[in-house]
Every structure is written in structure tokens, then in C-alpha cells.
Amino acid sequence: DLNVAIVTGSTVTILRDGTSTITAQQAGSGTWSPTSASTLLKVAPRACIAPAERINGACVAPQLAGNIVTRGDRSWMPVRFVDTWANANAYCSKTTINGQTGWRLPGTFEMSDLAASGQLAGQSWILARSWSSAASLDAGKLPVKGAHDTVDLATGAVASQSDLAGAYVACVR
Q: Which DSSP string corresponds to 130-150?
């Protein structure tokens, strides 16, 4: 099923969930007869990170209260829910928000700059600690295992937090 996967050379590209049969063929050579082999490829549906829902094979964010804010060439989704760092990172990278893909967790500088800009006033955003993409660093400037920085969107203050703790999710593209 070419709607599920396509084969180019030795690479299989997954397009959506479903089932497809992949067949490899080899021509005969010398005393060897031509042969082929087939296998069934089953692609499970993509798991969505709540509050995103699966719609037509894509993870789609619900309509979020608050406005998307544009600063420079960046667009920011409204901050509305709390989750772990791994779920926040997956949500941003795998979710269609307001019909757009290509979202990611922002860096600490981007978030601090947005907080200092004053653009969040009157946007109905929750201005609290939100995850960044930056790993927390120890005193020797080495990454702290299992911790990332958060930025308080009310003040721009940066703090380290365990990846398993909850912080708000802010996605940018």
C-alpha cells in the first residue's frame, strides 16, 4: 500500500499507519534462479501527547485559549498545560498547532527575550515556569542528567528543574 510506506532503493519511508506488503526481488545470475521475498509491514498509529488528539493520522492540538504571539520570525503557541519535559518536547515536535507543523521547545534566551518584550501582556497566557530545550548545567558547565531549564514567563528568570517534574509547555516555530 503506497499510502502506508514507499521503498526507494534500500530505504523504507513510513507515510502513515496501516499495513503494507514489501517485496524484494533478485534477478537470476549464473546457476542461481531469480527469487523474491515478501514481508508484511504493520505501522501502528502515532501516539499523541495530550492534550493533542489524533485526527486523520496526525496529532492535532485542540483550539487553545489565548493568542499566538509573533516576535521577529518566531510564532509562539499559548501556554495552557503542564507536563514532564519529555512529553513537552514530544508534544511540540509532533503536534499540528493551528494547522501548522514544525513546532519545537524554545531555548532559554528565546523565552527570556519573549518575557522581557512585554508582548505577553493581555494575551490570556499562563505566565509561569515553562520548559526550554536547554539541558541544565552544573557549576562546571556540564549537563545535569535528567534536568532541563525552565523560564518564568512573568519574570524571565531561568531555573533548573528535574525532567520528571511538571512545568508549562510553550512551543515555538
A: EEEEEEEE-TTSPEEEEEEEE
The model scores a pTM over 0.85: no
Q: Which residue has the cell 520570525?
A: 73
For the segment 31-53, what is each residue's pLDDT rounded down to a tens digit? 889 999 999 999 887 778 888 88
DSSP state at residue 88: H
Element of type H or E holding 114: helix 108-117
C-alpha cell at 122: 493581555
The x, y and z cell numbers of residue 128, run together, are 509561569
d(CA 77, CA 67): 7
pLDDT tens, 2-36?
888 888 888 888 888 889 998 888 899 888 899 99
Grid cell in block for residue 50? 495530550
| CB crowding 142-169: b at 16 or more within 10 Å, else e | eeeeebbbbbbbeebebeebebeebbbb
Q: Which helix (H) or strand (E) holds 162?
A: strand 158-162
Q: Are 16 and 33 in contact (CB under 8 A)?
A: no
- Quote the CA–CA distance of 31 and 27 in Å, as a whole number: 11
